[in-house]
Amino acid sequence: MPHLHHDPLGTIQSASRPGRKAPPPAPLLYYRIDQQVVFAYTCCMMELGPLLWIFDRLQGLQQTRRRVRVLVHRGVFLEDPESVLYYFVKVTNLSQARDIEITHVWFDAEPPVHLLMPARPLPTRLRPDETWEGWVKAAELAYVSDVARSGRVLLAGGKSVRSRRNKNVPAKGYIAGRGTPSG
After folding, report:
1. What pLDDT band is residue 21 in, cutting at 50, 70 and 90?
2. Same domain, residue pair 109 and 149
3. Is residue 14 part of a domain?
4. Which of 22, 79, 141, 143 is in the most buried spot, having the most CB atoms within 10 Å?
5. Which of 59, 54, 130, 60 is closest to 99 using CA atoms?
6. For residue range 40-87, what is the model confidence (pLDDT) as tens digits?
């Protein structure tokens, strides 16, 4: 039964021609097709060990990286019939394996509007997939042109995260995170 191997130029040659030896077991990959062993060479005959090591390290960094989402939307408290309009800031820890600590939440304006809420005190720690939400009266941000993009969250490591508009807000719902709402 002839042995086949794949050379770098892409032509298949038989290894059982007279005067020709079978291909050496040096290729990195081989597989069987119809009872014949086919050898596949990688580009430039590079060993995979160092590449796999680098890939594992990059994947590890990706999995331990801090990822935070900050969303802003408008709403009212339904249990209060005379409720005014509020802006809500929702912070979600999207990291796979890392906690985050939120130290400050504010709207970047002149002057800045800080969310100081005794019912939901800061700093607070969020486990992966955990959410914290705070709010401020919309009247306090009447002079801000783009409220949805002016929200800011400061993490314990000093990183500041900007907000964006929350486009997928249900018509009714509960406030995310710990604490009780008190307008």
Report:
1. low
2. yes
3. yes
4. 141
5. 130
6. 444 444 566 777 777 777 766 655 667 899 999 999 988 888 889 999
pLDDT digits (tens, 9 = 90+) for 90-129: 999 998 888 999 999 999 999 999 999 988 999 999 999 9
Distance in angstroms (rounded) separating the CA atoms of residues 104 and 25: 61
Distance CA 82, CA 172 (A): 17
Query: Does residue 117 sit in helix, strand or coil?
Result: coil
Residue 147 tokens read as 């409220």
3-state secondary structure of 57: helix
Shared domain check, 70 and 39: no
Three-state secondary-structure class, residue 161: strand
By the 10 Å C-beta count (0-12 exposed, 13-18 middle, 19+ buried), 98 is classed as middle
Q: For residue 89, give the nearest of 109, 112, 69 by alpha carbon.
A: 69
Its pTM stands at: 0.64
CA–CA gap between residue 141 and residue 155 (Å, rounded): 23
Residues 71 and 152 in one domain: yes
